[in-house]
Each structure stands twice: as C-alpha cells, then as structure tokens.
Amino acid sequence: MTTDQQFHRIAVLGAGVMGSGITTLALGSGVSVDLVDVDTRTLDRARSGIRTQLRHAQLLGALPGDRPQGELTTSVSMSGLAHADAVIEAITEDAGLKAKVLGEVSELVRPGTPVISNTSGIPIDELAGAVRRPEDLLGTHFMNPTYLISMVEVIRGPRTGDAVLAATQALLTTLRRKAVVVRDAPGFVTSRLLHPMINDAARIVAEGTATVEDVDTLMQGCLGHPTGPLRTADLIGIDNLVDALDALYERTGEKRNSPCELLREKVRAGELGRKSGRGFYDYGEGIS
C-alpha cells in the first residue's frame, strides 16, 4: 500500500460512541464504511446516531461540502474485511478482547493493510503479539466528537512498519485530520495528561472543595481548558474513563491514576455522561 492510494472503503469494528464517530467522519469525507458489531441492536442505534451526527456536522460546516458521502454497510460478520483498504478497531478498552479481535482481523486482511487499534492508552506492543503481521499494526486515539476535533494521536509501536504508518497518515489526510505520531507507552500523551487531571477534578468535587460547575468554570476561565474537565468526562463516557484509568494505573502503578470513588459511583449508578443522559451534568434522554 502506498501513500498515494485512494481510500475507497474502510472497516470499523465496534458501533459504540467512538466507532460511530469514526464512521461519521469517514462517510462525511467520502469514504465508504463497513461497520461491524456483534449486536444488531447496537448497529441499529448506530445507524440512527450516525445520521444525526452527519446532519450536525454539515450544519456546522465540519465536513466537506464538495464530496459525495460514502456508503454505510453494517454487519455482524467480519467476512468482508478482505476488501477493506484499512481496518479500525474501536471496541471496548479491554486489552484481552482487543488482542483477540485484532488477531482475527489479521487473518482476514491483505498483507500491508493498516490494522489500527483505536485506544486511549493500551500500549500497541501489548497487542502486537496477537496479530499475524505486527508490522501492519499501529494505534490511533481519535477524540470525541471525531467530526469536530481535527487532530489525531497516532501511536507507532516498536514493530510498526514504515509503509503502514505512511498509509495511515494518508488515510487521516483523506479524512482531513492532522496526525501527530508518538511513541508507544501507557496512556501515550493525551490520556497520560488528561485522564489523571479529570480524576483529580472529580476528587475535588467529592471532597467538597468546589461544585462541578465551579471546577469547570475555573478551568475554562483561568487555565484555558475549552470545556472543563468534568464536561469532558461526560463526553468521553465515565465508564470509558474509568476503564482507561484502571488500565493506566495497572501499567504505571501511579496512585493518581487509580479512579476515584466518585467516578466508580457514577458508573454503578449508570450515570455515564452524555450517552446515558446524565453524568456530572444532566442531558435529558441521552444520545447514541
């Protein structure tokens, strides 16, 4: 695969928040997508959510108006992966499950096809042992909402090949995204900085030092954080945040990375953020 190859069709595995968001970005950029998930109801919700996100992105001028949209195909089977120009895995942040799925993917795709794990912090080399061709594996960390955030963290594992890295950068250019390539490490750059900060913000609220609103207002007004850490937690998904913090704590041993009790309480209560309708803030009925 060369950097001047046209990306006509990609596969996205996982129809949750991130998988749907990546699919929206690709479709709006003129790239067709095979969206795969094991659950048909999740795929049904994703189709509806993707239509909504595409309308929202178009109203905001966040997607190119001069390209026809790509075609969306949904499936519970990975049998079509052999025809994909790239595969982006965006399933739950579980290293064992990711390794299993990526191993299955690597048996289906053509050699040289980028096999991309979208992860907020699991080291790519931990996953490389599960795939047939480790040189074809690398990581991305798309930010939510993908159609509004123009930069993507790209993680090059120790065994990632030059050709697949270049092809992935070309794909991101097609999606009008700027790639910043970093070396493999737990949490990479963005999660290693952002997630502990959100954890600390939740601790401050739990201790009664300040309200949720005041923490976010101070971070916005004094330190230039665009949304505030706790609104950001709601956007990430508090369950996803807890999973990512657990993974970071397991790999670093740094106590600051261990999710605070307030975050765990919210997960137990089903208050997961925007997608559930309530997290640190109230969003009504929630979104897909």
Automatic annotation (TrEMBL):
UniProt pathway annotation: Lipid metabolism; butanoate metabolism
Keywords: Oxidoreductase
Database matches in Gene3D superfamilies: N-(1-d-carboxylethyl)-l-norvaline Dehydrogenase, domain 2, NAD(P)-binding Rossmann-like Domain
Ranges of residues in domain 3-hydroxyacyl-CoA dehydrogenase C-terminal: 187-283
InterPro entries found in the cross-reference section: 3-OHacyl-CoA_DH (IPR022694), 3-OHacyl-CoA_DH_NAD-bd (IPR006176), 3HC_DH_C (IPR006108), 6-PGluconate_DH-like_C_sf (IPR008927), 6PGD_dom2 (IPR013328), NAD(P)-bd_dom_sf (IPR036291)
Family, as annotated: Belongs to the 3-hydroxyacyl-CoA dehydrogenase family.
Residue span(s) of domain 3-hydroxyacyl-CoA dehydrogenase NAD binding: 10-184
UniProt KW Ion transport keyword: no
Protein name as annotated: Glyceryl-ACP oxidoreductase
